[in-house]
Amino acid sequence: MCRITSSFIKLLEDIFYPAFCCVCKGRIDIRQSGTKDTEAACCETYPSFAKIVESVICPSCANGFVPIQPPLCTTCGEMFKSDEGMDHVCGACIDFPKKFCTARAAGAYSGPLMPAIHALKYNGRTGLARPLGELLFISLAKWFDINQIDMVVPVPLHKSKLRKRGFNQAYLLVRNWHRTARSYGLALPREKIKATVLARTQKTGSQTKLSRKERIENVKGAFCVTREADVSGKRVLLVDDVYTTGATVNECAKTLLAGGAARVDVLTLARAIRI
Ligand SMILES: [Zn+2]
Ligand SMILES: [Zn+2]
Questions:
Q1: In CATH, what number does 66-271 get?
Q2: 189 C-alpha to center of ligand 2: Å?
Q3: Phi, then psi, of 228 in degrees rounded to 5
Q4: Which residues surround ligand 1, an ion (CB under 5 A)?
Q5: Nearest CA to 129 among 199, 56, 190?
Q6: Of 129, 137, 253, which Cα lies nearest the Cα of 198?
Q7: Residue-level pLDDT, tens digit, the chain, 275 residues
Q8: In angstroms, what is the span from residue 51 Cα to ligand 1's centroid?
Q9: Is 225 helix (H, G, I), strand (E, B) or coil?
């Protein structure tokens, strides 16, 4: 499409469908978007955070994004305070050994990611799932070998919560990954995205105000594998929106492994950072 036509379409979109930043609520001038991508991305193959979210987060808010970078815990992926030194296992993973092999995330649960995830989860801005899902996919390509994954499993919600919210945000983030993969020249068949192999059978209270030990107790026995034949011998990538202490994903991993999965790794959009 010629540049004049493209600019004209963007002008019309801006007039009739103005875009607002989900962080500062300011209007995003989409006529300025799509023009440059000067910020260094995780590698040249993939666009930067600002570019991926340009239709939903303004450039100024996007600046506050904190990507997860080494050195980090080889198990849970926690970033260490010092940016020098080698990756190693953190104290929490020594004290509370994990069932999953590795957990990684796209960014810190701070800056623009926190309000963006809140807007998706609690305000029903499901349109955010597309750019945030792409961000998560790029994180998948950064941290994992896509060919070593047999199955992508979003952390399930209890059916009562699913009914109340109307959607599972973890599933929304991954449901178009087969298309996203194709757009980057990678292959992740749709059949590998399995939203129903794991179910949440217990209605657990919110984890937000609980201590680490209380979180572990709160989710104990809360999940089940719906058909063991589906997970038997499979290398599973478990996906969720936020990793806080890892209690939920660890319980899911325990359930999947008990159901016959060969290994479980974890990928989340955001990760709580201990200060
Ligand atoms: Zn903003
Ligand atoms: Zn750790």
A1: 3.40.50
A2: 31
A3: -60, -30
A4: 21, 23-24, 58, 61
A5: 56
A6: 253
A7: 566 776 676 666 666 667 899 999 999 986 665 545 544 444 568 999 999 999 999 999 999 999 999 999 999 999 998 777 899 999 989 988 999 999 999 999 999 999 999 999 999 999 999 999 999 999 999 999 999 999 999 999 999 999 999 999 999 999 999 999 999 999 999 999 999 999 999 887 777 777 878 888 888 889 999 999 999 999 999 999 999 989 999 999 999 999 999 999 999 999 998 75
A8: 14
A9: strand
- Tell me how long the chain is: 275
Domain positions in the chain are 1-65, 66-271
Ligand 2 centroid to Cα of residue 208, in Å, is 20
Q: Which helix (H) or strand (E) holds 269?
A: strand 263-271
Tell me the ligand closest to 56's alpha carbon: 1
197 Cβ contact list (under 8 Å, min separation 6): 151, 153, 225, 226, 227, 230, 231
